[in-house]
Amino acid sequence: LSELLASVRRLPAADPELAPQIATLRAWADTAALPEASLDRIARLELVLRRWARDEKLSGFAIQCWTSLQKNLGICACTTMSRLCDFGLPAACEADILGTLSMHACQLAGAAPAALADWNNLHHADDELVNLWHCGVFPRSYARATPIIGPHPILVASGVAPADQTQGVVNLAVRPMPLTLCRITQSVEGPWQAVLAEGRIEDLAAACEGSCGWCRIPNLQRLYGEVLLRHFPHHVAITPGLVAQVLWEALGNYLGMSLYHAGQATPGLWTTRGPFAQPVF
């Protein structure tokens, strides 16, 4: 991270890609409330990460997105991560490298951009609804309308940094669409495991900032039983479309992972005919 910060600072103002990058960001989202200095730093961060990924031939990465970036660079990485995900380079939050792996698998299975979401925000009255949310990193291709770039309300409220040092959050509501969810992790004992689900984003409002969408997942409470018992994290990879059957085959049959889904008779067991052969949605 220190090398990244140094590279962003060293990038010359006369870099031929910097001005076009700033113009691209203005067209990509509503940046009306974004200070010029923040926009410049966000553009620099994207250029540095793109070049790093190209030079190192990376398929994706995870970034320590708080609180060092805010204190030392004065922005959030969310805008950059959102854009890179849309360009086929999965970027996971909070140094969650196995979240990157989960996103990479989703992207390969569905040939569509993947994102990383918190999936622990349940609806107060509907047991099959979860608000898939993150601070503001979902790809723009998921959005119902033009995203708005703004400050990070949680970091500001917690006193990490003032609003002008936390700019970069992508505020968007996810459009209604079918969705595949996947989380790959490694158990404490060593073996690899994955949990899979299919759902659908519904046309429901959510009173929150950042990127979010209400997702209906059949048998969600039973699924969470497996998530808790098998120690899966609160981050899940998502991608448009229903491709859990592809992941079931690839992760279980070819990579030998233990697989979990809602309502399975023998938890962790890969079977020839997977549970997602006939999509619910």
Would you spell out the secondary-structure blueprint of this structure?
Blueprint: H1 2-10, H2 18-28, H3 36-56, E1 61-62, H4 68-72, H5 78-86, E2 91-92, H6 97-110, E3 115-118, E4 129-134, E5 148-151, H7 153-157, E6 167-173, E7 177-186, E8 192-201, E9 211-216, H8 220-229, E10 235-240, H9 244-254, E11 258-260
Parallel strand pairs: 1-2, 6-9, 8-11
Antiparallel strand pairs: 3-10, 4-9, 5-6, 7-8, 7-10, 8-9
Describe this structure in words.
- With about 280 residues, the protein is α/β, with parallel strands linked by helices.
- The chain is about 35% helix and about 20% strand.
- The protein has helices spanning about 1-10, 20-30, 35-55, 70, 80-85, 95-110, 155, 220-230, 245-255; strands spanning about 60, 90, 115-120, 130-135, 150, 165-175, 175-185, 190-200, 210-215, 235-240, 260.
- Strands 3, 4, 5, 6, 7, 8, 9, 10 and 11 form a 9-stranded mixed sheet that branches. It has a two-stranded parallel ribbon with strand order 1-2.
- β7 (about 175-185) and β8 form a beta hairpin.
- α1 packs across α3.
- The radius of gyration is 19 Å and the shape is globular.
**Any idea what the shape is?**
globular
Number of strand elements: 11
| Main structural class | alpha/beta
Overall mean pLDDT stands at 96
SSE string: HHHEHHEHEEEHEEEEHEHE
Percent of residues in beta strands = 15-25%
The amount of helix comes to 25-40%
Number of helices: 9
Query: pLDDT below 50 for ≥5 consecutive residues: which ranges?
Result: none
What does the main sheet amount to? 9 strands, mixed
Q: Rg from C-alpha positions?
A: 19 Å
CA distance, first residue to last residue: 42 Å
